[in-house]
Amino acid sequence: MTPKIRAAITGVSGYVPDYILTNAELEEIVDTNDEWIRTRTGIRERRVLKEKGKGTSDLALEAVNSLLKKKGISPDEIDCVICATVTPDMQFPATANIICDKAGIKKAFSFDLGAGCSGFVYALVTGSKFVETGQCKKVIVVGAEKMSSIVDYTDRATCVIFGDGAGAVLLEPTTEEYGLMDSFLEADGSGRIHLHQKAGGSLKPASHESIDAREHYIYQEGQPVFKVAVVKMADATEKIMKRNNMTIDKLDWLVPHQANLRIIEATARRIGISHDKTMINIGKYGNTTAATIPLCLWEWEPKLKKGDNLVLVAFGAGFTWGSIYLKWAYN
Fold first, then answer.
1. 127, 148, 177 — which closes off a domain?
2. Is the pLDDT of residue 331 over 90?
3. 6-15 β-sheet, strand order
4. Active-site positions?
5. What's the alpha-carbon Rg for the chain, to the nearest Å?
6. CB-based burial label for 106 (10 Å; 0-12, 13-18, 19+)
7. Model confidence over 169-181: pLDDT tens digits?
8. Which domain holds residue 69?
9. Among 10, 27, 154, 178, which lies 20 to 30 A Cα-Cα from 203?
């Protein structure tokens, strides 16, 4: 009997820009204050890519190069690169194509995947299928965002939330009981009315009117998004755990998308997992959209042990949401 091939994460890396945008600095830009930001979002600071002429691909490049170096592998060994992002360098070509060019990855196919804040979860599941079917031996999945490029720094409701960053993981095949064990993905396009970018697409191309109306920035209705996010993230976590007969005592780590500290805490409370088993770094990075989950894995990597049970869960624009049951593959 042919053993089942699974896709295992065998390496992880991350990168955030040097510039730290603090709540104190935001107080000088917009009508807000540190207490208001912290009590509503849990964010103290976030990173911003300030260098002129640099975009999402440059953030991703740092994470990818670091990953290749860490694993001691050549760019020529990579078969596929998937970049989850809503802030591509340009409409086309794909930012993944640009990352490959900059990293010297010349023998891979590459493409972008846009699923908002659920992008990394969607991309990880997608990348795993290329490994499980035997088409690819080494797949890099990147979550990377230059959110500062679409943030309106006159809108106090959104400008305090988002930051820039990138995280990358390497997927490789294994016949052991590790890696992506199960996944659950869903979407509801009617949620787009609450969270979107109004202009810049084919429906409403850029014009003087759209620019003057500040429609090329994030538009978000906080309360509806918050309510649905809490329910869907908790539901997705419970569903993947129930489907795999996993009780809370068997779950080593919850890895939630870092949207808002209150959403994370509400999700953890609802499933009954303790704070010390929940990865949280939103305080120092803010919401980096598709980059939040790989940045958590990068930061917590030294604490992870082979065989640890992880649930990755996210909710984002679309609406999109989903979860992954992941068994950690290395010490």
1. 177
2. yes
3. 6-15, 164-174, 139-146, 80-84, 109-113
4. 117, 257, 287
5. 19
6. exposed
7. 999 999 999 999 9
8. 6-177
9. 154
Q: Tell me: do 173 and 247 sit in the same domain.
A: no
Q: Give the residue ranges of DSSP H helices in the chain.
A: 23-29, 34-41, 56-71, 95-103, 119-132, 156-159, 208-212, 222-243, 261-271, 282-285, 292-300
In this prediction, residue 103 carries a pLDDT of 98
Residue among 86, 84, 143 nearest 111 (CA): 84
Q: Which residues of 1-29 are buried (b: 16+ CB within 10 A; e: fewer)?
A: eeeeebbbbbbbbbbbbeeebebeebeee
Pairwise CA distance, residues 228 & 191, whole Å:
9
What is the per-residue pLDDT across 122-162, written as a single tens digit (0 to 9) for each?
999 999 999 999 999 999 999 999 999 999 999 999 999 99
The values of phi and psi at residue 110, to 5°, are -150, 150
Q: Match 């490959």 to its residue by tokens.
A: 100
| Residue appearing with tokens 């000088």 | 28
Q: Which of 144, 177, 210 is the last residue of a domain?
A: 177
Number of domains the chain contains: 2
Q: pTM for the full model? A: 0.97
| Distances 262 to 39, 55, 243, 268 between C-alpha atoms, Å | 9, 30, 26, 10
Task: In whole angstroms, give the CA distance from residue 169 to residue 263.
Answer: 25
Distance CA 134, CA 6 (A): 10
Adjacent-strand bridge partners of 172: 8
